[in-house]
Specification:
- By secondary structure, this protein is of the alpha/beta class.
- It is built from seven helices and ten strands.
- The strands form two sheets. A five-stranded parallel beta sheet has the order 3-2-4-1-5, sandwiched between helices. It has a five-stranded mixed beta sheet with strand order 6-7-10-8-9, with helices on both faces.
- Helix 3 (74-93) packs across helix 4.
- The radius of gyration is 19 Å and the shape is elongated.
- The structure holds S-adenosylmethionine (SAM).
- S-adenosylmethionine binds at residues 17-18, 103-105, 108-110, 132-133, 136-137, 177-179, 202-207, 225-228.
């Protein structure tokens, strides 16, 4: 344990993209010593991050579900984070150590950041980085992301077509995340930019049910939530 960690009661732990072995030793140690283990679960559904950490969960730890509403408006989600931050604050005041589980890396598009901003007003909150989907996707696809002066862009598929095209044109490599129902739009843009042939798709990277495909070979109209596309322009290896 690092010397300056002793006073930390609240932790955000990256547990990696799916394979339970892709958790760091540090996250594992903190998880197994925690009094309370908190994790998000979309309304009424199972928690994916709980499933990733299942084999590592310590016996007897209290579990806290952070129920996150599946809506696009910010307001209900903000209420859920306010409520969860209040509960975590109470646990910390009672002297307990709380581990908040995060899929992939906590600060890479993770909803943990909404709890962090609330809790760090009164507490020192520790963050343990995790293997993100970006790294897991590249490794599983066998696509090195960057060399020398390459610029890699992470592009949410939620952007509009013109923005997607502009950002793709400017990058040497791109990781397109949040593909889901935007698959068709992304395909159109990649085709228009002449990049579809080199685009590699992966869903559920390192999880059970992982699937890999070339975008050209896929006829799907939609992709699952846990999917991304990597585009690598000419490599000079
Ligand atoms: C809200 S972001 C969370 C990212 C996560 N914190 C990370 O470090 O990878 C969710 C998006 O990440 C991507 N993603 C996360 N895990 C993935 C996985 N195992 N396989 C493929 N894509 C994944 C998908 O594009 C998904 O829509």
């Amino acid at each position: 344990m690092a010397a300056n960690e002793a006073d930390i009661k609240i932790w955000g732990l990256g547990v990696g993209p799916g394979d339970p072995e892709l958790i760091t030793l540090k996250a594992l140690r903190i998880l197994q010593a925690a009094d309370v283990i908190a994790y998000p679960a979309p309304d009424g559904a199972d928690s994916l991050v709980r499933a990733i950490a299942a084999t590592h969960m310590p016996v007897g730890a209290e579990e806290m579900i952070i129920s996150t509403p599946m809506v696009t408006e910010r307001h209900p989600a903000q209420n859920a984070y306010d409520e969860a931050a209040g509960q975590i604050d109470e646990h910390a005041r009672a002297g307990k150590t709380i581990a908040i589980l995060c899929e992939g890396d906590p600060f890479f598009y993770g909803s943990f950041m909404y709890l962090y901003s609330r809790l760090s007003e009164n507490w020192r909150v520790g963050v343990v980085p995790g293997v993100s989907s970006l790294n897991a996707g590249a490794a599983e696809l066998g696509v090195p992301l960057a060399e020398r002066n390459d610029v890699v862009s992470v592009i949410p598929a939620t952007l509009d077509e013109a923005d997607l095209a502009e950002r793709l044109a400017a990058a040497d490599a791109a990781v397109i995340i949040k593909v889901g129902r935007h698959l068709d739009k992304v395909r159109r843009v990649l085709e228009a930019e002449g990049l579809a042939a080199g685009a590699r798709y992966i869903e559920r990277a390192t999880m059970d049910g992982q699937r890999i495909a070339s975008l050209d070979d896929m006829s799907d109209q939609k992709a699952p939530y846990f999917s991304l596309i990597i585009v690598r322009k000419a490599a000079d290896i």
